[in-house]
Amino acid sequence: xxxxxxxxxxxxxxxxxxxxxxxxxxxxxxxxxxxxxxxxxxxxxxxxxxxxxxxxxxxxxxxxxxxxxxxxxxxxxxxxxxxxxxxxxxxxxxxxxxxxxxxxxxxxxxxxxxxxxxxxxxxxxxxxxxxxxxxxxxxxxxxxxxxxxxxxxxxxxxxxxxxxxxxxxxxxxxxxxxxxxxxxxxxxxxxxxxxxxxxxxxxxxxxxxxxxxxxxxxxxxxxxxxxxxxxxxxxxxxxxxxxxxxxxxxxxxxxxxxxxxxxxxxxxxxxxxxxxxxxxxxxxxxxxxxxxxxxxxxxxxxxxxxxxxxxxxxxxxxxxxxxxxxxxxxxxxxxxxxxxxxxxxxxxxxxxxxxxxxxxxxxxxxxxxxxxxxxxxxxxxxxxxxxxxxxxxxxxxxxxxxxxxxxxxxxxxxxxxxxxxxxxxxxxxxxxxxxxxxxxxxxxxxxxxxxxxxxxxxxxxxxxxxxxxxxxxxxxxxxxxxxxxxxxxxxxxxxxxxxxxxxxxxxxxxxxxxxxxxxxxxxxxxxxxxxxxxxxxxxxxxxxxxxxxxxxxxxxxxxx
Length: 560
Fold this sequence. Notes:
Elements: H1 3-9, H2 15-21, E1 29-31, E2 37-39, H3 41-51, E3 59-65, H4 75-88, E4 93-97, H5 102-106, E5 114-115, E6 118-121, H6 123-127, H7 133-153, E7 169-171, E8 180-183, E9 194-200, H8 205-212, H9 216-224, E10 227-230, E11 236-238, H10 245-252, E12 259-263, E13 268-271, H11 286-295, E14 298-302, H12 307-322, E15 328-333, H13 335-341, H14 354-372, E16 378-383, H15 390-402, E17 407-410, H16 412-415, H17 421-431, H18 447-457, E18 463-466, H19 468-479, E19 487-490, E20 511-520, E21 525-530, E22 549-550, E23 556-557
Parallel strand pairs: 3-14, 3-15, 4-13, 4-14, 7-9, 15-16, 16-17, 18-20, 19-21
Antiparallel strand pairs: 1-2, 2-12, 5-6, 6-12, 8-9, 10-11, 12-13, 20-21, 22-23
Helix pairs in contact: 3-11, 4-17, 7-8, 7-10, 9-10, 13-14, 14-15
């Protein structure tokens, strides 16, 4: 059976019964049909307040991964299986995941609900429109864009220089034709012509703000701080000066509240917020994580893509802003991905190849070393595929042991929580070890120093090459008083480096190029763009949309 067929065959519990598992009654939930709900504001605030006391929190487990390949690693699958596995061994677990974006669903990556017998459901709803959060974020983002252009059209009392407007429109689809556009064409009544841009909705600063705000008042404060451009006199202009912050917050009033769903084994799961990790900060919302920490003894969460992206941003951005830290981290790896990093073509992955496996392990080695730099206990979850041989599995365990990291086999795709029970027991032991959480860089460092530390400590570069445009923007950011913000690196997910074609481990001493930076003053971080990464992906030659269909009964097929 395919993933979607397994999900459609499952018997789901009414979401009210799932709510009871986290201490939420019907009065604490707003229902979106039978199997989806949002926490009410009262319940959300109650749980966030409880989790604000470290003594009343559950233990937080971060699931990350080695560098992804076309073979797939199954990070979400392992995250869900681990949550189910913890329940299997008698622990009160709650899962916290990101919402899928429509871009990957119809593009190349697919959805983000796990796979096999380790999924969050209803899978089709979550992967498509869900509770409308991303649509609300899209509308709020584009209302800001419309208000900016309208202000310029209606007399421009703030004196905004149209050439400096940095705010982009967005859509939650991969559409490369919209990356660079001209707006305001047609005539005087149609606006002021200027160059503009689109990004995918999950890269929007509004997405980041929703994920990093604990309340409506905090949401409004962050929205008002958004930098939208400069005046003709080169003074930065914030969105708050347009006096429309309340309208944007009104569109987002429900989007800020966590969504509650379930796994195939009825483990409660908060699925909320969806920033990409290659172009945004890559973590589910602080609200969802805090609510999970207040309602579960063990909370399993994940961060997008590999440890060099999602996990680093989880540690250096989300943990800083949320006042939290993980008690343990799990790095997901597969024999197939290790062999691809060792030079094996995808069509040849079914054949045993210990030499390539050992060579490809260098990629996993770097991620293990990097995660240790945060002072958090680390283990490896080997997500098993049917083609994996016993000698290959034993070699991975041996190589991990030599790095001081326990490697545990996970068979969650095939067996659900039962296949992750050993991993669950390992996690319980791991969270009992002493964690000495620390960040990679101090906020007091200059922007260039922070980027250098990331490039050298995490991406293993020898130096950083800043484009002249990037340096100029960094100077302007620091002069405006924002130099103490954390850095959110936008780079390829397919390599530890900036170059998507570099697999395995980077060659020591390479130069890491930073071509641009952008200030997210509302969200509270600085985005640095490395290599050729863009914030509006394109569709592949054979998009996943070609395989998706729906019949007369409304049954969807082809979604994965």
